[in-house]
Amino acid sequence: MSSAVEALRKRSLTQLGPGLLMAGAAIGVSHLVQSTRAGALYGWGALVFVLLANLLKYPFYEYGHRYAAATGNNLVQAYRQMGRRYLVPFLLLNSVTAVGSFAVDAFIAAMLVQYLWLPQVSATLLSGLVLLVCWGLIAVGRYRWFERITKSCVILLSVATVAAVVMAVVAQPAFEIASATPKPSPFSWSALPFIVAFMGWMPGGLELSVWQSLWVQSDAEDSGQPWTAESASFDFNVGYSLTVILACLFLALGTMTLQGRLLADTPAEFAGQLIGMYTTSIGEWAAPVVGVCAIAAIFSTTFTVVDAFPRTLAAGLGELYSPLQKQPQLKNGLTLLISSLAMLLLVAFSAGFNLLIDTITIIAFVAAPYYAWLNIRCIQTLPDEQQPRPWLVRWATLGFLYLLGFSLVFLGVEFIQL
């Protein structure tokens, strides 16, 4: 057995590191909230956009794994090698999405905690506590311990979701009602803002590709075992497949159980609807179990975001100003700064959290073509033997044109409506 195959076997059996971290980051707002909203609003027709977003973003996420495994460097370093004029806009965009992501992920986790255990405590206050706990766990180095628990809970949530979908299908009356209820078309112009917002974080923002490269690099440094192309590809594809399957299942749950009802803006109603998607199919007894799993899933997403955004910004600032590379507290300082700004955003954004989610995810989608173009440029610098296959290159070109075209159409429609 070759060393490459042996490395793949060992990786596949003992750890699915950055790939499952990516799944943990993705299976949060995009799945629990946006996929269920898409199903509730547009039914099975929205499945087209779930598949398109996942398929056409695939090459750019894969490039993050590929580049780090091939070079031992991360994509932030690659952007810096291209020039400051490419890295600086990336960092500015990341700063904006970091604040919004911290706010949205923490608030949804807080909603679930409030609904299940602490109804008398403000969701905004609980959001701050969620961010503080995440920062504390990272600061004291409990990442590996927390990672094992959250991965287990994501698996439990996956099992519960599969069970809920199967039982909803078996419960023919509920399925027939959901199917018979007329729903607006997701292909109409009126649906465009939501569809763009939906695809912005489906399965995640494209900055996730940079996080993957940082995680692959860190994992190789910590383990002393460099990633091969085969093991990196296996790790990535397992994690990505899980995110795609669960996105489809959450859309199915929204279609069959919410039946055209919008997810509420108020914390108690939102959490009740989310848990209700499962209890409608499985039974009321499942509420505590599903609630804990859902909290674990969104909390792991929040934890991953709290780790990844400051890690990315610290790496970028270090590339721009080398003395900052020797400042180990830079990442912690950035975490506290972003958390503080996120709390201010939650206090100021009183129009409702659905509008906040849509705003942040629309920004993510409009920024996606720039990230995609950067990743295409970076992967072209690899030696010939480490280049992606021609079909993947063509796939990336198609994905870039899709993201760019959709973004331009959306911006054009919004400009006309001003």
Q: Topology, pairings included?
A:
Layout: H1 3-14, H2 17-26, H3 29-42, H4 47-71, H5 75-82, H6 84-116, H7 123-139, H8 143-170, H9 172-180, H10 192-200, H11 208-223, H12 229-258, H13 267-282, H14 287-320, H15 330-348, H16 353-379, H17 390-417
Overall shape:
globular
Distance from N terminus to C terminus (CA atoms, Å) equals: 63 Å
Described by strand count, sense and barrel closure, the largest sheet is: none
Strand content: under 5%
Structural class: mainly alpha
What is the helix tally? 17
Q: What is the name of the CATH topology?
A: Amino acid/polyamine transporter I
CATH superfamily: Amino acid/polyamine transporter I
Transmembrane segments: 12-33, 39-56, 90-117, 123-141, 153-175, 187-206, 238-258, 285-309, 330-349, 355-374, 395-416
Keywords: Membrane, Transmembrane, Transmembrane helix
Protein name: Divalent metal cation transporter
